[in-house]
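task queued by scheduler; priority normal; single chain, no ligands, no partner chains; default sampling; output format set to structure tokens
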Amino acid sequence: MTRFGMGYDVHRLVEGRKLIIGGVEIPHTLGLLGHSDADVLLHAVADALLGAAALGDIGRYFPDTDPKFAGADSMKLLAHVAELIREKGYVTGNVDATIVAQKPKMKDFIPQMNVNIAKVLGIELDQVNVKATTEEKLGFTGTEQGISAYAVAGLEKA
């Protein structure tokens, strides 16, 4: 039986922070504000995986009130989520995710994001699909106040 989960994350764009999405540092004048590295894509993927396994959400495992997660690398957080999934007897079937950002354009960085996610989850590259869209200058992402990401993940019993 396949189980599915959905994740969503959003962070505000601010000066003085690196922009890291999908484990890729993207050149931009603004970065995402958050307790960790604020990688919206990996946070959404982690929540989708945790949801599919009925394990709660990333705040349960990596609370923003815990100083040990200040500036944390979200690739390491996702690796921990992958281990939790395996411990519960599941393997990742697939991940499909969308980044919502007016700027910067993501297309040149998406191939590496796919590789990063596949590698950390221990799955094949063709099991991961990252894409990006804008909101045509509408809403907080359209006015470049923030970036969000959605993800859906399927799990199979190991």
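post-processing summary
- The CA atoms of residues 102 and 144 lie 6 Å apart.
- The beta strands are 2-14, 20-21, 24-25, 31-32, 90-100, 128-133, 146-157.
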